[in-house]
């Protein structure tokens, strides 16, 4: 019989969102009259910007004409999209990023997992706790960890706890790790990192020859002008960081699929026998071999995000979700519940009231308010006692959910 990848069997059986779905379905069946409001999964709810739709309609027309028809595109993405990204997302912020260092993809979730293809199996790997589960699970699948313990921690990974005590930014270790995953603005805590904090990580990485895998999927939600949007705003980051970006949350592309990864040409790693190799060449090879690009139509849609109309329409989308986040923060605070995040991110991180566990608060909120959120413990052991509420929903649903919660919980 063919051998399987045994590492898959190490993955925790009850993944967070299926367990949430199971509990919500059981409740809905037992209470068919309940009007359940879902503020759990971080998926967008509002339609695609008009500029993106118009560009995609035009691109479909291009595909219908022999002269403008497109077959396979470049595996790295079309030059016209990569140039706009380089100029508007990076060079305009003083980041020295060239279009050739940008690789268009069908999602930053995929890229966060795929990037492991170009790294060896014997790196030490650090993640924050709580964390976006994809970083952990993809390392488990790749055989980079041991077994999971009853707290949900995998042997072999370095967990850096984040909590209210450290402002949800991890303390920088005083020992060497090879790969470090950082996510700012953070999913799930909604925390952000200052330039000083990122500079400290970059200094650490350069001292130890480490690589920072920087996930900036939520950068567009930053409201505070002093906060960095990219790791490449930090001096020295070109020598130690890869950045993941996505059109999913800023332009509502979760179902349309387009993202990109930035791999600077100056970034280097080491072979087993100590030779230095440029990572750009490895990622370029990986993408050219295993990926055939994002569709022309979708890339034209993504390009429209950078047009004047696209910029103002995506800004309006972000403002809409951030107003939801403000309502959530204010209403929960008024109900005597301690909240974090939600000021530069679409997630509000809630301290569960009365010392309830994350899942007990989940059940209570579902049963008494018919509102669904995400238990913090699902993102890691240190997320216990916290709860994530997403601002991705209609205004009416957010207002109704907050009304129900404040009525039940008001102190
Ligand atoms: N990174 C983080 C931190 C996320 O929360 C998400 C999605 O929720 C992603 C990446 C995935 O983005 P994409 O839709 O581009 O795959």
Give a description of the structure.
The strands form four sheets. This protein has a seven-stranded mixed beta sheet, sandwiched between helices. Strands 11-12-15-14 form a four-stranded antiparallel beta sheet. The model has no long low-confidence stretch (mean pLDDT 96). It contains eleven helices and 15 strands. It has 411 residues and is α/β, with parallel strands linked by helices. The protein has helices at residues 16-30, 50-63, 79-90, 108-114, 133-141, 195-208, 279-290, 296-303, 308-334, 358-369, 395-409, and strands spanning 37-38, 102-105, 125-129, 157-161, 179-183, 211-215, 241-246, 259-262, 268-270, 276-278, 339-341, 347-351, 371-372, 374-375, 386-390. 35% of the residues lie in helices and 14% in strands. It starts with 15 loop residues before the first helix and ends with a helix. The protein folds into two domains: 9-47 and 309-409, Aspartate Aminotransferase, domain 1 (Alpha-Beta Complex); 52-307, Type I PLP-dependent aspartate aminotransferase-like (Major domain) (Aspartate Aminotransferase, domain 2). Pyridoxal-5'-phosphate (PLP) binds at residues 42, 107-109, 132, 183, 187, 215, 217, 246, 248, 254, 259.
């Amino acid at each position: 019989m063919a051998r399987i990848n045994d590492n898959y069997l190490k993955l925790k059986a009850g993944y967070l969102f299926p367990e949430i779905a199971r509990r919500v379905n059981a409740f809905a069946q037992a209470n068919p009259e309940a009007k359940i409001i879902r503020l759990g999964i971080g998926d967008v709810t509002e339609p695609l910007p008009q500029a993106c739709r118009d560009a995609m309609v035009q691109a479909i027309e291009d595909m219908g004409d022999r002269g403008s028809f497109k077959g396979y595109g470049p595996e790295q993405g079309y030059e016209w999209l990569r140039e706009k990204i380089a100029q508007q997302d990076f060079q305009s912020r003083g980041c020295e990023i060239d279009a050739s260092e940008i690789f268009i993809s069908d999602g930053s979730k995929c890229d966060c997992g795929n990037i492991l293809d170009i790294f060896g199996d014997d790196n030490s790997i650090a993640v924050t706790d709580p964390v976006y589960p994809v970083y952990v699970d993809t390392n488990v699948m790749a055989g980079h960890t041991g077994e999971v313990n009853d707290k949900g921690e995998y042997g072999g990974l370095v967990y850096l706890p984040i909590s209210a005590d450290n402002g949800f930014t991890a303390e920088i270790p005083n020992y060497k790790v090879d790969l470090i995953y950082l996510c700012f603005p953070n999913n799930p805590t909604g925390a952000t990192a200052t330039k000083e904090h990122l500079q400290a990580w970059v200094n650490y990485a350069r001292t130890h020859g480490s690589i920072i895998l920087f996930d900036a999927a939520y950068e567009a939600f930053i409201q505070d002008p002093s906060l960095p949007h990219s790791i490449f705003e930090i001096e020295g980051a070109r020598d130690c960081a890869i950045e993941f970006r996505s059109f999913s949350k800023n332009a509502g592309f979760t179902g349309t699929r387009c993202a990109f990864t930035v791999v600077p040409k100056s970034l280097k790693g080491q072979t087993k026998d100590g030779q230095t190799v440029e990572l750009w060449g490895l990622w370029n090879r990986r993408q050219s071999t295993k990926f055939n690009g994002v569709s022309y139509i979708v890339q034209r849609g993504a390009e429209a995000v950078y047009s004047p109309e696209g910029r103002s329409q995506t800004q309006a989308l972000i403002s809409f979700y951030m107003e939801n986040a403000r309502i959530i923060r204010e209403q929960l605070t008024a109900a005597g519940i301690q909240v974090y995040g939600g000021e530069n991110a679409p997630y509000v991180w809630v301290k569960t009231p009365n010392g309830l566990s994350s899942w007990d608060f989940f059940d209570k909120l579902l049963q008494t308010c018919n509102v669904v959120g995400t238990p913090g413990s699902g993102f890691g052991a240190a997320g216990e006692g916290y709860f994530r509420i997403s601002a991705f929903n209609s205004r009416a649903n957010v207002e109704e959910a907050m009304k129900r919660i404040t009525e039940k919980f008001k102190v």
